[in-house]
Amino acid sequence: MLEYRSYMKSLRPRIYPFLLIGFFLVLAKPGTAQYRYNKLVWSDEFEKSGLPDPSKWNYDRGRGCPLICGWGNNEPQFYTWDRAENARIEKGELIIEARKESYEGTNYTSARITTKQKGDWTYGRFEVRALLPKGVGTWPAIWMLPTENRYGGWPKSGEIDIAETVGYQKDTLHQTIHTDKYNGMYQTHRTNVMRLKGHGVKYHVYAIEWSADKIEYYLDGIKTYTFPKESDDTRVWPFNQPFHVILNMAIGGDFGGKKGIDDTIFPTQMRVDYVRVYQ
User: Fold this and answer.
1) What is the pLDDT of residues 82-135, one digit of tens each?
2) In this structure, which topology does domain 35-278 adopt according to CATH?
3) Neighbour-count burial for 203-215, b at 16+ CB within 10 Å, e otherwise
4) pTM of the model as a whole
5) Which of 31, 56, 207, 229 is most deeply packed, by most CB within 10 A?
6) Where are the domains of the chain?
């Protein structure tokens, strides 16, 4: 964050009017981001209605059952693909919709889309403007996983959770890092838990700036958390390899389902205005 330790009394308004105006505009927005990465290299503004752009997005398919499927967190939903009921672009937004319905042996459907092998980056600023839903049982997430798993399967190759909410926690945002040393299986993960004003009704800009020496988190342009590189040990810092972006709405599961699932909330939507990547 920016700090302002002096007023610079020597400035005279009649000589420096524009400097003073700029000075007070900055004072009015403490903590405004000073980004390292500002060249836009990839984006989806979701301008064309229909299914997500297949040149940019893939689908993770099926159930989130780690013992059988090899991934997921024991969520009961079925992740569909090429199905507008669960993932579509409408009026300039990506809508990921979770529904209560019988489908492929499950009682819920949703979608999980990724940029894997269509958008993979090492370092940069990753920015998503979205409305994350509330409601007990919801678990929407904006996050990143390694594309090649150079250091082994999860969590050895790392995970970057840009934004997560769970419906049973009111107005609460989670910004989390997982590595082999710091991971949720042992409750050693590094996380920032903070208030999210207007959860479920207000759009926010969720972002990270990931460089060779740290990962910085931002909410609406304000820095909220920093995960520094402590060493070159890949158990601590596996973040020197390409990662891709994931957008999904889980239902229930190990984290999202701790207080059950309120079936009266369906259908419920995660709405994404844009995804932008800067390097």
Assistant:
1) 999 999 999 999 999 999 999 999 999 999 999 999 999 999 999 999 999 999
2) Jelly Rolls (2.60.120)
3) ebbbbbbbeeeeb
4) 0.88
5) 207
6) 1-32, 35-278
